[in-house]
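Write out structure tokens for Beta-xylanase.
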Amino acid sequence: MKFQLFILLSALGTVTGQLDKLAKEAGLLYFGTAVDNPSLNNQNYLRIARDPAEFGSLTPANGQKWSNTQPSQGRFTYGSGDAIANIARQTGQQLRCHTLVWYNQLPGWVSSVYNRDQMQQIITAHIQNVAGHYKGRCYAWDVVNEAVEDDGRYRNNPMYRAMGVDYITHSFKVAQQTDPAARLYYNDFNIERCCNAKINATIAMIRTVKAAGAPVHGIGMQGHSRVGMSPSKREMKETMARFSELVDEVAFTEVDIRHTKLPIGAAERKQQGRDYMEVVGACLEMPKCVGITVWDFTDQYSWIPQQYPGEGEACLWDRNYNQKPAYQSIVALLQSAASAGLRTSATPAPVAAVMTVDEWAATVTAAA
Ligand code: XIL
């Protein structure tokens, strides 16, 4: 009977997603996904990406990057970014905007600038134009992306070579002048597992630029990791506790958890479910964590196989749009957090009331 009802509702197209709906019920602001332009002509993809109950927030995976928005000096192009921003406008989904100043996907004409004043003018013009174009539409902007190396040094990128750490301060100031309503984030990878050299350096960097007047509201932990080797909830909570002393909010901004060896079996799928659950659990249990964005939701469009040949299947849906155990694990956790009132009631429910990774794993075994 239930099954027939499901078929009927599916046929009517009324079965909607649940990640964002449940995330909100559990007290988060959103559950979101990155969306890249090549996927926009795929109806199977769009049906999920445009469903606000599934994803309350969209992030252009590439469309707002420097190489797309100002490929040559003074020529601004917004087609790719707008294609995604316009979906969010139609559906009422929120936008997480990404990213203004980054050493990657940076056009050659910027990397060949060595003069401090010129670089400052170039950054100013870029942010004023791009953040100006999207003014009022971005819940948050990743203002500066990946400015610190794993060993804790500042990344020696063209902006740093021209201006030193002032490029970071300057970028945040211009972003705030341009779009005062946007939450301004510093965003990076490998800053999830407490507390490595990069995390310590990131904290020192945020202190430095805030002392110099940079309005940094949030820290984004990208959250790219590997099945079976990803950071534990405890480690991520420790990091977020330290970041929470510096900024108003934190978020997981680009989560994907890839298998390092393919093909995989049921045990690896289940482990991936556990690993995703640790991320979502860490966010739920930290008051300043506002939401989670996955770096695309289907293996069909994941960036992983290109970036890490031989690795992949990192997303919540497979390439045929079947939900994986990882999807189910997040749903189960969000449901139990919502009904336990973990973040919504005045007195948060004890963490023990929320489903544990092991309890979820037991349900998978039982069902298998
Ligand atoms: C990736 C995109 O997903 C790819 O399509 C592109 O080729 C390279 O960039 N950290 C970031 C994201 O901040 O912008 C990157 O996105 C993934 C790593």
